[in-house]
Amino acid sequence: MRQFAHDVKRLAAFEKIVLVTRKTRLAELIERFNTLAQAKFYIEHAGGNFQEYQLEDDAYRQSTDIVRRSIEIGLKVQEIDRGLVPTFTFLPADLVVTLGQDGLVANTAKYVGKQPVIAVNPDPERFDGILLPFLPGQTGRAIEDALSGKCRIRSVTLAEARLNDGQRLLAFNDLFLGAQTHVSARYRIRWATAEEPQSSSGVLVSTGAGSTGWVSSVFNMTSGIAALTGGHAVKPIRLDWDDPRLLFVVREPFISRHSRANIVAGILEQQQAVELESLMPSGGVIFSDGIEADYLQFNSGSSVMVSAAAETAQLVVG
Fold first, then answer.
1. Which of 89, 145, 254, 279 has its CA 20 to 30 A from that of 6?
2. How crowded is residue 19: how many other Cβ atoms within 10 Å of its Cβ?
3. Tens-place pLDDT, residues 91-134
4. CB atoms closer than 10 angstroms to residue 77
5. Is the dihedral angle over the CA atoms 113, 118, 122, 124 positive or is it negative?
């Protein structure tokens, strides 16, 4: 069941609007090839449709202009690129607005603390926007409602990976624990009263918001294999966004003299954790929400506890 929180005093105390934007595919290509002409040559030479890149970029620029005008309401305004989010210091008096796809929301919300996030869909013709309830032209009204305390806030459970050296990483959708490259990850897993050494393609831990994402592909694969071997189809597990439980699955566990595959999936109840001890001398990583560049090292000597975080993400929904 969806639960909405309402905190009028906190919502009314904003002093600054932080707008989080992202580079379009065309902007990234121009950075890579230095000029628009060279980017166009590269795409067309590879058989791609450069016009689609251009139209996507135009739509994002138009949406950015609309949102920029909408947030000029007398408060301080700071605009940052998504690449700066992991190291940016969000303050209690910041109201956060994101302009981009669902992934931008996920990779912003886990860093902003208790601050509500207004997620704007810059291009509804291209993006379904499961996490994007507002269009660019609705940004001003969404901000007004947040400032007056009239908006609804949806809480989203976050996952937390905490290493034995104190480092931690939050996830909006999912955490990946495994090897940095396509080699087997070696570790010891402990869950409930069971433990065993494993060799696999890594472990996924999903929140309710992520249960329809990466982890669902594991269920799709398992269901297909079950059908091939005459078994029953596997029904994917779906959790509500505010469900305090987490779901974990072990990807492609390998059985050998030194590895087992008895612990392959489970649901972490509230305040329950799964623990992994790395047996990899190098190349072990933990990253969240598909952002491989923002990771924790997970090598021999490291152990990690994964559970639901004390914090929750706060999404403005209307």
1. 89
2. 21
3. 999 999 999 999 999 999 999 988 999 999 999 999 989 999 99
4. 14
5. positive
Q: What is the dihedral of CA 201, 203, 207, 208, to 10 degrees?
A: 60
**In 3-state terms, what secondary structure has residue 176?**
strand
Q: Which candidate, 308, 283, 270, places its Cα nearest to that of 175? A: 308
Alpha carbon distance 198, 206 (integer Å)? 19
Q: 248 CB contacts (<8 Å, ≥6 apart)?
A: 191, 203, 204, 205, 206, 265, 266, 267, 268, 274, 306
Burial class (CB in 10 A: 0-12, 13-18, 19+), 316: buried
CA angle 148, 149, 155 (to 5 degrees): 145
Q: Is the pTM of this model over 0.85?
A: yes
| pLDDT band at residue 12 using 50, 70 and 90 as cut-offs | low
Cα 177 off chain centre by: 15
